[in-house]
């Protein structure tokens, strides 16, 4: 229990959430043609949503299918870069502030 508390104190909660989300997307199977969505615009029946496909695009990029990732959502690779930068920045900041 003390190790878990030490890890939680060393890293920011936001960094842990982003890291968990990226790991979940990396492990997400992309073979299914239908999936559950939390998108309110899609659930209302609207066809256009600027964020739809971003999670699937990130998942495809982690699996090495870069052309399919770009076709699903052009900003998928950019989102991976931005989120990775944010995780690293939060980690360095929290470690530096604890010393």
Offer a concise description of the structure:
This protein is mainly α and 99 residues long.
Folded structure, characterized:
The structure is a single chain. The chain has 99 residues and is mostly helical. The protein is 68% helix and 0% strand. The protein is built from six helices and no strands. The protein has helices spanning 2-10, 13-27, 40-43, 54-62, 66-72, 76-98. Helix 2 (13-27) runs antiparallel to helix 6 (76-98) and helix 4 (54-62) packs antiparallel against helix 5 (66-72).
Percent range for β-strand residues: under 5%
Tally of strands: 0
Radius of gyration: 16 Å
- Count of alpha/pi helices: 6
| Strand and helix order | HHHHHH
Unreliable parts: none
Q: In angstroms, what separates the terminal alpha carbons?
A: 22 Å
Instruction: Identify the quaternary structure here.
Output: single chain
Structural class of the secondary structure composition? mainly alpha
Bulk shape: elongated
Mean pLDDT: 82
Largest sheet: none
- Proportion of helical residues: 55-70%
Topology overview:
Layout: H1 2-10, H2 13-27, H3 40-43, H4 54-62, H5 66-72, H6 76-98
Helix pairs in contact: 2-4, 2-6, 4-5, 4-6
Based on the model shown, name its key terms.
elongated; 99 residues; 68% helix; mainly alpha; 6 helices
């Amino acid at each position: 229990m003390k190790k878990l508390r030490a890890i939680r104190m060393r890293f920011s909660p936001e960094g842990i959430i982003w890291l968990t989300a990226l790991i979940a997307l990396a492990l997400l199977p992309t073979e299914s043609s239908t999936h559950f969505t939390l998108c309110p615009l899609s659930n209302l029946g609207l066809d256009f949503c600027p964020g739809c496909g971003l999670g699937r695009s990130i998942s495809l990029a982690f699996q090495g299918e870069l052309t399919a990732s770009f076709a699903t959502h052009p900003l998928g690779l950019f989102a991976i870069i931005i989120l990775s930068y944010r995780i690293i920045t939060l980690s360095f900041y929290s470690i530096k502030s604890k010393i």
